[in-house]
Design goal:
Elements lengths: L15 H9 L15 E4 L6 H18 L5 E5 L5 H14 L4 E2 L7 H9 L5 E5 L8 E7 L8 H16 L9 H6 L3 E2 L5 H7 L5 H5 L5 E4 L6 H10 L5 E3 L30 H8 L5 E5 L6 E5 L3 E2 L2 H14 L8 E5 L5 H8 L3 E5 L7 H5 L3 E6 L3 E4 L8 H15 L3 H12 L3 E8 L2 H8 L11 E2 L2 E2 L2 E3 L4 E5 L2 E7 L5 E8 L3 H14 L3
Parallel strand pairs: 2-3, 2-4, 3-6, 7-8, 7-9, 12-13, 12-14
Antiparallel strand pairs: 1-5, 4-5, 9-10, 10-11, 14-15, 16-22, 17-18, 19-20, 20-21, 21-22
Helix pairs in contact: 2-3, 2-5, 11-12, 11-14, 11-15
Length: 516
């Protein structure tokens, strides 16, 4: 598969039966539970298996009982191979511990978990997903009462408990799902209607319905499909059509990514190739997509082709700031690796910028307390005030479509207008392979290690931040180096408002200073 040309469909069948067997009967020693920015994740088998699901569910049950939290827990997952099995295992463990569980009969997008928690119908959630990663991967996320990704303190507690239960499986309580349902501890519910009706208060669907702009939307084989169907039907969007609606856990209909793997990434030009062609051929003016668990967005337009997430975030921020009222939040949020153009836009509207570490969990308090008008990250995640505290790809796709319909302009054209006003941004990210020991050494770097760095890439160093990797701030430029939480790579991010040539200088100098 790796040798095939990126952007083509896979010719090699993924062995689903073997993966299913590996989930229930993994070969060799299994990995310890380790939460990254948003949960435990790994390849089916040693990386993630039924034992992980049971241990994490028991850890959550123990935590809830110790904290006196006896509200309902929403359990579900996306359309991956073992998402349903993972959800059912979690439900059987939680109910065996006397906790009430909501187990929908359908796949559940990540933002809907957050929505249900914030709506007060459940108090927490366990979500089986590996986001846009290859079909062979699986994971499990926990959302506490704030609706967002769990904090580092909370995930550390869950990790320790889960690893204890991995080593002591006889201490895990579990009953059959049938028994749990008979006892009344497990129930189903309608998760579509409340979400799409509430979304109608955030998105001007009447503007979309009355527009001549033709739009295509795809869930990339994921959990968002029935939600988009319901949105189109409920709001009578005759100009919006669903495309690529097939659902299969091998995701064979997704074009291969840059490295020959199937990766359902709506921000990559390879998986998004069919949608790019739809707008390029003139069939549609706009094409939007969300990944399998519905927390990331992507879009393509006639004028711009695939729109970079950074560009889309800037357009969305400008649009939201323009229509903001007196009582709206006074800040916008972005992660360390996200474009600085957002700062310039925010400043123009009298908004402050909150720069946080990589991970949407760092936006939770700001969104929950209505301090952030919008929060966004360069990896295609965003949410807005008075909405969910998770990334919401469904919201983002609908908002981008609303912007095009309301303005009558292409997203790419709107971004160009912003660069005319604030300057053109040159941005990139380069991944460099790094052995595990090099990664660990890199994680220990501190700003004080660069105290003598007065100039970098020919400019004065304004400051160095070490809260998440090392970020070097220059005038109208910056470089960020951080270790990946899931892969043996060091990620180099850079942005400048000078030139493409200077961007390359930043990256080259970054490789030297970090010995990459």
């Amino acid at each position: 598969m790796i040798n095939q040309k990126a952007g083509t469909l896979s010719k090699e069948k993924i062995d689903l039966e073997t993966l299913r067997k590996d989930f229930f009967e993994p070969k060799g020693n299994i990995a310890k539970v380790k939460f990254g920015t948003s949960g435990h994740r790994g390849s089916l088998g040693q990386g993630f298996c039924a034992a992980h699901a049971r241990a994490i569910a028991q850890a959550v049950a123990t935590l809830h009982k110790e904290e006196g939290l006896f509200g309902k827990i929403l359990v579900g997952g996306d359309t991956r191979l073992m998402s349903r099995a993972t959800a059912e295992i979690c439900a059987s463990v939680l109910s065996a511990n006397g906790l009430k569980v909501v187990l929908p009969s359908m796949a559940v997008p990540t933002p809907v978990f957050s929505f249900e928690i914030l709506s007060g119908r459940v108090c927490a959630a366990l979500n089986g997903t590996a986001s846009h990663n290859p079909p062979q991967d699986m994971g499990l996320k926990y959302n506490p009462s704030n609706g967002g990704p769990a904090s580092s303190v909370l995930t550390k507690t869950i990790e320790e408990l889960a690893n204890f239960y991995l080593e002591n499986p006889t201490k895990i309580k579990q009953i059959s799902l049938e028994e749990a349902r008979k006892s009344g501890l497990v129930e189903d519910c309608d998760i579509i209607t409340p979400y799409i009706k509430a979304l109608g208060k955030k998105i001007k669907f009447d503007v979309i319905a009355n527009s001549n702009i033709k739009a295509a939307i795809t869930p990339l084989g994921g959990a968002s499909l029935p939600f988009y169907e319901a949105i189109i039907k409920h709001y009578k969007l005759k100009n919006v059509r669903l495309v690529m609606t097939e659902q299969n856990p091998d995701f064979h209909f997704i074009p291969l990514d840059h490295d020959g793997k199937i990766r359902m990434d709506p921000s990559s030009k390879y998986p998004m190739k069919p949608l790019i062609e739809l707008v390029k051929n003139g069939d549609y003016d706009f094409a939007g997509a969300s990944d399998p668990d519905g927390d990331r967005f992507g879009c393509a337009t006639k004028k711009g082709g695939l729109i970079a997430p950074n560009h889309a975030l800037c357009v969305m921020l400008d649009y939201l700031a323009r229509r903001a009222g007196k009582d709206t939040p006074k800040k916008a949020g972005r992660t360390l690796g996200t474009t600085m153009l957002m700062d310039k836009i925010a400043q123009n509207y009298g908004l402050g910028i909150e720069e946080v570490n990589v991970g949407f969990k760092y936006f939770v308090d700001g969104l929950l307390n209505k301090e952030l008008l919008m929060a966004g990250e360069e990896s295609a995640g965003m949410s807005i005030t008075n909405w969910v505290t998770e990334k919401d790809g469904i919201l983002a796709v609908c908002l981008l479509l609303e912007i095009m319909c309301f303005t009558g302009q292409d997203i790419a054209g709107l971004y160009e207008q912003l660069t005319t006003l604030y300057g053109k941004s040159y941005y990139t990210r380069v991944d460099s392979p790094a052995k595990a020991e090099i990664k660990e050494k890199f994680k220990n770097l501190k700003a004080q290690d660069f105290a003598e760095l007065k100039t970098f890439a020919g400019q004065e160093v304004l400051r160095v931040r070490d809260s998440d990797g090392i970020k070097i701030y220059l005038k109208d430029s910056w470089l960020l180096a951080r270790a990946s939480g899931t892969e043996n790579i060091i990620k180099l991010y850079a942005e400048t408002f000078k030139s493409q040539e200077y961007l390359e200088t930043l990256i080259n100098e970054g490789k030297k200073i970090f010995s990459l």
